[in-house]
């Protein structure tokens, strides 16, 4: 096993890029050795292409020297998608941060894959448009990473996910071939849909270099509702009622009883009424004149057994005040245990109450704190099992709880990951959901796009 | 070249299905020998599976005897997608017309691929939901055909296309393997997106047997606007203005000057004001209370240079009266010439006026009647070159005009087909739009899914 990069490969990379964009020093490699997971693996080098053509050159050098490439945006993924493999080179797209074209009149933008997600949104907003997908990391995540993982966020309940905003891509396959997919129009059915095959393929099929993205007009107004419930089930039943009437909110976020307990222990959200054991944060957007009608419909659907309090805000400060509890959660969760095993399961919304009851049961029977919150309008829950990695017994119980959780999610008609992806973390569980024949087809596709198995080889497919 | 089916294959098919669902007689084969194109090719047999398992059995027999299979819904396609190849068997999914599951509370339905598109919509409407994709043939088209071609229709401008409503599929690959893709939730990122790879693959990769489809709540109210303009360019500029403000109509249909001329020659649409040379049909839908605001915004955008008349209707009869001109078009077009060469090009909406001017120029320089109408909100025009197939000189000019049209569409940043697909008709033009490397990848995918080249082998890929 080599532990340094072949000097001839370094020479070739420096010739293709320049010496400042081929980094092999330990401190640079250290920075790129991990993503948001606790795992860590030092790459042999980090390279920073400026263009599609440079990315082609990197791929060709990787083929020549048999070196594994790990595509990386901001490294903000949750499942190890950008985690280096042993003896790999990280291809960081950070320097490919140019907007290539912007056509506000046709509502699309063409960007290099290293552009920050929020930057696309910001540019669009200057022309009355916005980019709907809003992963939690959008302030620093790169669009290439969003495309690789088919990222989503709270707005997905109304606006859909990254996949729904990609009109076309440019990419380099593992064979070094340039692939151009899709079109610049809102309709187009010429040839196989390679665009959506690459979206969500987690850097295992091709290196995405450019994307044509669809934009939408900014909704004129927005309002936020914070609704408190006496129990998890009461809140979940309200979610089901909301998703069963005509007004689709642009966010429908849930916090369970353990989440409320965590923030209250941390001294936050002192304004929640006594007896609050679950919380929904609901947002509506649209024309200013139409917003009152939407709010009324949502209010009606949210009202029911166990509802303790409903607050509405539409001005900036009041909205921020309502979000305080939710914002306090990330910090509060960290105080419970050193490590959160961060899951991302989805069930049909009508089964959400059953899922949450099952999670309560798991927490009790395995004696583990489990904090659940997330995008309830899509039935997408982030289930966080809080553990101390030094405690073997606890880690063992967490593993069992996880397996039971996944079985229950599938029994409820759900899927094991809604927006985080598979990466290395979920890889052992893929066969619980995808059958052997369908996996066989995916492996063939992988082989076809990446015949030398050089693109993120230890991810996604088991 | 065989012209009758191997008797052993017939025996095997009868054993797998039953004798009434394996038809080899000439009159049945004749019925299944064509689709909406003028071409014709007699299949060796037509088989009618009832289930996924029977479809697997048919595929296995096809592999054993080396017989080409042509998947067919209602045969309502425009590009020869369901046209038999020589010595092929047509697999008609007409008998696979069962709704397998319906979950209105979670807004999805699971159907066999032979269910009529409009029937899915009808069932959904009983529960306050609807199925948005609305191809012109939806009253008789089968959902399997819609999936194969990624069908769309007028509502695509607001609601998207078939692809956007498919959550998961069950299918049989050309290797006889059962493939299960996707999920039953509105989010899910487990594995490669095989669902959208199959949607639009025109029966060349797998036989789709079952689909899980997303439904939406029915908009409470709807209104129609008919707007007359002095010229094609005036109407196209209005389209661009409409698609540049926040209210997205649920239909934005265009009829050009040749269309108006055709219906007026046929004696229809006598109520259009004098000097009308282009027409827009615009629909808005939403909450009843919100509709006046939408209409006002659309009216403002539609008003501009060359607008001669704007009529609004919201009750059923008045709406029908406004649509008279558009409904008269199909019949009127048929009186111009024996054959229409029916194209389906798309350009970014801001380039629509340029496209229409180019078409006017083509009609003049090639001395051909060209009637254009279609889904202007998506920049998707059905360009119909009217010809007499017996007139060789005219056919030659039409061919040249077509090539020039396609070049111009691509130069404007467009695509050669928005919703009809490639089939056999557009196959000679694929290389104008898709580069060699990307086509190479598509061919590899075809080979991987269909290693014996038995599924619709003479379609889509050149």
TrEMBL record, chains A, B:
Coiled coil: none annotated. The gene is dld. It comes from the Bacteria. Residues 39-218 form the FAD-binding PCMH-type domain. Belongs to the FAD-binding oxidoreductase/transferase type 4 family. PANTHER family: GLYCOLATE OXIDASE SUBUNIT GLCD. Its cofactor is FAD. This is Lactate dehydrogenase. SUPFAM superfamilies: FAD-binding/transporter-associated domain-like (SSF56176), FAD-linked oxidases, C-terminal domain (SSF55103). Keywords: FAD, Flavoprotein, Oxidoreductase. InterPro entries: FAD-bd_oxidored_4_C (IPR004113), FAD-bd_PCMH (IPR016166), FAD-bd_PCMH-like_sf (IPR036318), FAD-bd_PCMH_sub1 (IPR016167), FAD-bd_PCMH_sub2 (IPR016169), FAD-linked_Oxase-like_C (IPR016164), FAD-linked_OxidoTrans_Type4 (IPR051914), Oxid_FAD_bind_N (IPR006094). PROSITE patterns: FAD_PCMH (PS51387). GO terms for molecular function: FAD binding; oxidoreductase activity. Signal peptide: none annotated. It holds the Pfam family FAD_binding_4.
């Amino acid at each position: 096993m080599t532990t340094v990069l072949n000097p001839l490969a370094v020479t070739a990379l420096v010739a293709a890029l320049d010496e400042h964009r081929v980094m092999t020093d330990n401190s640079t490699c250290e920075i790129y050795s991990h993503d948001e997971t606790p795992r860590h693996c030092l790459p042999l080098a980090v390279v920073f292409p400026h263009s599609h053509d440079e990315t082609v050159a990197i791929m060709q050098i990787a083929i020549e020297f048999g070196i594994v490439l790990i595509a990386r945006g901001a490294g903000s993924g949750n499942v190890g998608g950008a985690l280096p493999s042993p003896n790999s080179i990280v291809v960081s797209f950070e320097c490919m941060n140019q907007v290539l074209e912007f056509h506000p009149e046709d509502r699309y933008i063409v960007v290099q894959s290293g552009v920050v997600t929020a930057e696309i949104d910001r540019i669009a907003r200057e022309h009355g448009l916005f980019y709907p997908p809003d992963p939690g990391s959008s302030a620093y995540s790169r669009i290439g990473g969003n495309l690789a993982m088919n990222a989503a966020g709270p707005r997905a309940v109304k606006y859909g996910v990254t996949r729904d905003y990609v009109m076309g891509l440019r990419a380099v396959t593992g064979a070094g071939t340039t692939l151009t997919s899709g079109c610049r129009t809102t309709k187009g059915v010429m040839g196989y849909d390679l665009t959506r095959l690459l979206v969500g393929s987690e850097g295992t099929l091709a290196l995405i270099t450019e994307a044509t993205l669809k934009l939408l007009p900014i909704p004129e107004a927005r309002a936020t509702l914070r609704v408190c419930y006496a129990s998890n089930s009461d809140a979940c039943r309200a979610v089901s009622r909301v998703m069963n009437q005509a007004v689709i909110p642009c966010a429908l976020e849930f916090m369970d009883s353990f989440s409320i307990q965590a923030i209250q222990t941390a001294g936050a959200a002192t304004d929640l009424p006594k007896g609050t054991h679950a919380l929904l944060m609901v947002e509506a957007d649209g024309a200013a004149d139409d917003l009152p009608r939407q709010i009324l419909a949502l209010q009606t659907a949210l009202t029911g057994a166990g509802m303790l309090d409903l607050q509405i805000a539409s001005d900036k400060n009041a909205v921020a005040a309502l979000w305080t509890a939710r914002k306090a959660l990330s910090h509060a969760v960290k105080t419970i245990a050193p490590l959160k095993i961060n899951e991302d399961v989805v069930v049909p919304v009508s089964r959400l109450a059953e899922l949450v009851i099952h999670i309560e049961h798991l927490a009790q029977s395995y004696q583990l704190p489990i904090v659940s919150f997330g995008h309830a309008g899509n039935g997408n829950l982030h289930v966080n099992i809080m553990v101390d990695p030094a405690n073997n017994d606890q880690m063992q119980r967490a593993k069992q709880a996880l397996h039971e959780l996944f079985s229950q999610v599938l029994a409820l008609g759900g899927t094991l990951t809604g927006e985080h992806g598979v990466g290395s973390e979920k890889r052992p569980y893929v066969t619980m959901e995808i059958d052997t024949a369908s996996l066989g087809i995916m492996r063939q596709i992988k082989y076809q796009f990446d015949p030398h198995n050089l693109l993120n080889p230890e991810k996604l497919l088991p």
